Amino acid sequence: METSEILKRVRQIEIKTRGLSNNIFAGEYHSAFKGRGMAFSEVREYQYGDDIRDIEWNVTARFNKPYIKVFEEERELTVMLLVDVSGSLNFGTQVQMKRDMLVEIASTLAFSAIQNNDKIGVVFFSDRIEKFIPPKKGRKHILFIIRELLDFKPESQRTDVGQAVEYLTRVINRRCTAFVLSDFMDNKDFRTPLTVANRKHDVVAIQVYDRRIAELPNIGLIKVRDAETGFERYLDTSNKQVRQAQAQWWKERQDYLRNTFTRCNVDSVSVRTDQDYVQALMNLFAQRS
After folding, report:
1. How many CB atoms are located within 10 Å of the residue 248 CB?
2. Which of 68, 109, 233, 260 is the most buried (most CB within 10 A)?
3. What is the DSSP string of the chain?
4. 114 - beta bridge partners?
5. What is the pTM of this model?
6. Residue 64 to residue 58: CA distance in whole angstroms
7. Which pairs count as long-range contacts for 42-50, CB under 8 Å and 24+ apart, including other chains?
8. Beta partners for 44?
């Protein structure tokens, strides 16, 4: 993609996604992703019923009467986007490619974050950590992120979600809200690293997928290629058993993912490329509020 085309696309995405953030998601985002940390605010005299573990001993000794530390919730968040850039995202048979929808969702979340004065950072991942953009504030930073989302070229085409969340756990020390954006076409078991990451951070999974991965059309013999491995084969989609086998595989795959997220205590949402991701995000926000 040429520079002028990238800048035009960045501007288009900014106009659309910033509008969604300002007009639709403002209150919902604020309610769904409150600051989770507690920051020291002040000291005051001890009152009956206060927790003695909060006594500020230095001030108490100075004034010869008990004082306690008062804490308040930290509103400012650090938001991390863990963005899958593997080969399987370059697929779409309906309204848009999976990667295009993922970019719009990531951009919408980014603008929602800075509207609430939150820092935002990004991890691009395949089966390795492709790039890390440290958390910062500001529109200029968001536009840089969108440009990277549009034009980033990964070194690998494969997927390893577990490695991405392990990296998050290592590099982000302060508790953050982390969105994992992927089609989750990963054959490895990532439950353990996801559970560990969600104990330290607030992890949310957003899956994007295409209708034709779930249901094959009846169009006869087709050649299909695995975008991550390069493996090719022919499928006879006119065969009812072939179509039923694909549908059953997809159902089992989705059941496995839902069970994984439930066991890891991770909120999740799935969005199809021909559906409205705005409503899907609204539903996600509502269940967290």
Report:
1. 10
2. 109
3. --HHHHHHHHHHHHHHHHHHIIIIIHHHHHHHT----EEEEEEEE--TT--GGGB-HHHHHHHTS-EEEEEEE----EEEEEEE-SGGGS--SSSS-HHHHHHHHHHHHHHHHHHTT-EEEEEEESSSEEEEEEEE-SHHHHHHHHHHHHH---S-----HHHHHHHHHHH--S--EEEEEE-----S--HHHHHHHHHHSEEEEEEEE-HHHHS--S-SEEEEE-TTT--EEEEETTSHHHHHHHHHHHHHHHHHHHHHHHHTT-EEEEEETTS-HHHHHHHHHHHH-
4. none
5. 0.79
6. 10
7. 42/69, 42/70, 43/67, 43/68, 43/69, 43/70, 44/68, 44/70
8. 68
Strands 221-225 and 129-136 come out as: unpaired
- Whole-number pLDDT of residue 227: 62
The pLDDT, as a whole number, for residue 95 is 61
User: How much is the pLDDT for 191?
Assistant: 95
As given in the structure block, the two tokens for residue 274 are 């021909």
10-residue mean pLDDT series, the chain (289 residues): 69 75 64 56 78 84 85 69 89 70 90 84 96 93 90 90 96 92 92 95 93 77 66 74 84 94 95 87 81
Question: How long, in residues, is the chain?
Answer: 289
Q: Terminus-to-terminus CA distance in the chain, angstroms?
A: 40
CB 158 within 8 A of CB 184: no
**Contact (Cβ atoms closer than 8 angstroms) between residue 217 and residue 237:** yes
* Cα distances (angstroms) measured from residue 252 to each of 187, 257, 261: 13, 9, 14
Structure tokens belonging to residue 1 = 């993609």
Beta-bridge partner residues of 73:
38
Q: How many CB atoms lie within 10 A of CB 249?
A: 12
165 in Cβ contact with 180 (< 8 Å):
yes
